[in-house]
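lol forgot to send this yesterday, sorry. struct tokens for the thing we talked abt
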């Protein structure tokens, strides 16, 4: 695994997101990636299609939606959108409170997901992501992923 030199852009941090389902959450995150310019129109649909093939639930109430490699052409760069939900939402047989949608080409996804997982394993970072009211503090953690 190579060491990536550039940090991912944190396009948006959304606290207190109210959604009723995993599908609503993934659609919200995908729309935000499109709205902020991380990806072109249609990328949200790719996140949903990827989620339908295989769950992006990581554990500990966290999911990391990302798109199908066949839709890399919709990307404008690499980045992410963070969402913390007002209440945990059903995700397979689990519940998710935090989701981080990743916009990155397939060639970079494994490394990015590994780095995000390492971030989530840091108790201090996880606590900040789960409880902080400061979007800047959350973005700072994710930016150094």
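and heres what i got for the seq, position by position
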């Amino acid at each position: 695994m190579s060491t990536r030199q550039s940090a991912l852009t944190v396009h948006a941090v959304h606290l207190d997101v109210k959604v009723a389902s995993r599908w609503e959450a993934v659609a919200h995150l995908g729309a935000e990636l499109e709205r902020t310019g991380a990806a072109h129109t249609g990328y949200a649909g790719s996140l949903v299609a990827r989620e339908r093939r295989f769950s992006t639930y990581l554990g500990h109430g966290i999911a990391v939606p990302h798109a199908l490699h066949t839709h890399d052409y919709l990307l404008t760069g690499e980045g992410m959108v963070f969402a913390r939900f007002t209440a945990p939402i059903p995700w397979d047989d689990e519940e998710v409170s935090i989701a981080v949608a990743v916009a990155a080409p397939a060639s970079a996804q494994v490394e990015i997901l590994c780095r995000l997982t390492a971030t989530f394993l840091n108790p201090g970072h996880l606590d900040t992501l789960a409880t902080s009211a400061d979007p800047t503090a959350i973005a700072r953690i994710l930016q150094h992923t």
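The longest helix spans residues 106-121. anyway ping me if u want another try
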